[in-house]
Each structure stands twice: as structure tokens, then as C-alpha cells.
Amino acid sequence: MPLTFKHAIAIARRLGYQYLWIDSLCIVQDSDEDWMRESAMMGQIYSFSQCTIAATGSSNSHGGCFVKRKPLELQPCRISGNILSAQNASEDLYLYDWHTERFSEELADAPLNSRAWVLQERILSPRVLHYNGRQLFWECKRYDACEAFPQGLSIDYNRYNGRAPTNFKKVLASGTRAMPERGLSEDCSPKDMMYLDWHSVVESYSTADLTKARDKLVAISGLAREWRLRLGNEYFAGLWKNDLHRELLWHMQLLEEGTRKRTSTYRAPTWSWASFDAKVYNATMVERMTDCIIVGRIITVQVTPAGSDPMGQITSASLEIVGPMRKSSIYKDSHGLYHIPDATEGYSDEHIEAGGWYSSCNPDVELTQLAEVTYLPLL
């Protein structure tokens, strides 16, 4: 039995729990039937758990939870002296070796948290106990803590950690947004906030690692169910039907030449962000603050699930949109950025710098330096 499993059993016994769920032991391996059934329930398994034990500092199941460390490094340095507090009382000063970058080093960028499946497990679990190489971290719906700060982490930490999974845990628990987005209009509705939070989840999820590419939609299906309950909306391959005009405005992070490739095995339609393995952004923040005219009219959208789970793996999908088509030229500058011209006054970097281009774009595929395209505007 791998070392991490042995440590997890020891921790569960020490905490007084009788039952322990370990995915690779509780799901029949090499059984597609059992996998399809159990993967559809992963969200419920973690949502109704008592506590999730995370071997956060381990890169595999053999790394374990318990490691040699120096606990004295976590203790504050006490400075005695006549230091006046806010109440003008003399008291000692305690200095901690802590800065926000350390959170990234010890938790956000830890080996376990680079895995795609872990994102929804972290968000949906009521409590998570992280075993890191330096100290323990605690996450729950109420607050976050660690050994250095057992009473809870500071406001500065929460501000730095605004889009982390632990804050989305609080969003789902309270129904309100944990950290208001900078620059959002006061008229932005709670439902708009939920869409923005979903896009932030997708942004984090899109960069995470999957052992099996086919699991792209499966490993986030538990979160999709939670958002569906709150949005009252239909879900199609990672996008929401009632907001589909804006959902389709996703784009990838600018990549190096030759890396704009979809997976060879089908797992999502081309109009879904789930068809790519690349960081995804959704340009809806500005759109929600601006009155937009809907140009393209969505007629039908259909998805065929691979099994009984409508939120999980799919075998096919289709989308029908009606609207005016346009033709244009797309120019790629020396930095690899694509631009759409407002006039045919020449194609050069100098023309772009002079303001002769009204829009930039990020195509899903590599194009030549000057390409003729036909497209359908949505908004």
C-alpha cells in the first residue's frame, strides 16, 4: 500500500473517523462502468465528507503526509520591551516569518494542487487539512488557518488569495461573493457575480493537469452541479445556455507558435473551452458593465452525454447560430498578436501602432501573417 494511503489511515484513526474514501481504492480500476457511475458522484462524495486529508506537499501517492521538518521556524519571535499598544498598555511584540508569497510557495503551487481533480475536491469539501512539507494548513467554510496562525490568516492573505479555491468554498456556503471584483459596476447582479466566479474557476482549472484528457469535463462536473443549482441554468459542455452569447467569448492565453492545438481525442465541441489544453479567459467582465446589442441569434444547442451524467463526459454536441456574416483580414504582427483592420491602408506593425486597427483577436488555430476570414459577430 502506498505510503500516503497508510498515513491517511493513521490520520483518520487519530481523528476518530471510522470510514475513509480513497478514490483509487474505492473505484474499481479498469472498469469503465464503475468509473462512469462513481465519477458522476464525486461532487457529492466530497461535499458530504467530514474532512478531506490532502497530501499537498507530495507529488505522488508514495510521498506521504508526514515529513521531517523544523517546527520552531513557525514560532513567532518574541521581543520584550516597553511597546505601547492601541490601548497605551505596555506589551511584548511578536514577529512572524510570513509573507503572501509564501502562501503561493507552500499551498497554491504545491504539487497536489496542480492536479485538475483536486480543484473541485478542495472547493466542495467542507474542511480540508493540508499536509505540507513545512506546516499544516486548514481550510473550511468559516476561515483559513495554519500552524503559524492557528486563529486564522490575515486580511492581507485573504485579499491576496481572492480567487483561490478556499474563497469559492465560502461563495458556495454563503451565496455571496467572497471578494468583490475590482472595477465591477454596483449594478452587477448576484447572478452576474456567479457567472464571473464560474469563469474564474474555469481559468484556474484550465491550467491544471489531467492524467486522462477525456476527464476534462468530468473533473469539474461536481462544481458545475453546484453552479447549476444557483444559476437555474442549463449546462452544455462547460458553458451556460442562458448566457451563451457571452460564454462563447472565451479565448486562450497567447501561446507560442505551433501550440494552438486541440486534443486528438474528442471530448468537447470546438466552441467549448474544454476542447483545448491551455489557459482560458472569458471576456465577460467588461461586457457585463456595458450595454450590448445581441447580433447572433442562438437557435439550438445540444449535447449528447457519454453516460447517465449530463454534466460529465460527452460524445457529441452541436450549436446553431443565425446572424450576419462578415469578411475581414486578420494580420499577425511581429509579436504574434492578431489584429482586425478598420481599413485597407496597409498591413504593418507601424500601422497598428498608429491606431489603424479597431480590434485584436486570439484565433484558436495558427494563421498566416495575413489571412482572409469569415466570421459571425455575437455581440
Tell me what the structure shows.
- With 379 residues, the protein is an alpha+beta fold.
- The chain is built from 13 helices and 16 strands.
- The strands form 6 sheets. The chain has a 4-stranded mixed β-sheet, sandwiched between helices.
- Helix 6 packs parallel to helix 8.
- The longest helix is centred in the middle third of the chain and has 16 residues.
- The mean pLDDT is 81.
Structure summarized in a few sentences:
This protein is of the alpha+beta class.
List keywords for this structure.
379 residues, alpha+beta, 4-stranded mixed β-sheet, 4-stranded antiparallel β-sheet, 13 helices, globular
- Overall mean pLDDT: 81
Stretches with pLDDT under 50, minimum 5 residues = none
H-E order: HHHHEEEHHEEEHHHHEEHEEHEEEEHEE
Structural class: alpha+beta
Strand count, sense and barrel status of the largest sheet are: 4 strands, mixed
Share of β-strand residues: 15-25%
Give the fraction of residues assigned to helices.
25-40%
Principal-axes shape call = globular
Q: What is the straight-line distance between the termini? A: 55 Å
Strand order, largest beta sheet: 1-4-5-6
Output the radius of gyration.
24 Å
What's the number of extended β-strand segments? 16
Number of helices: 13
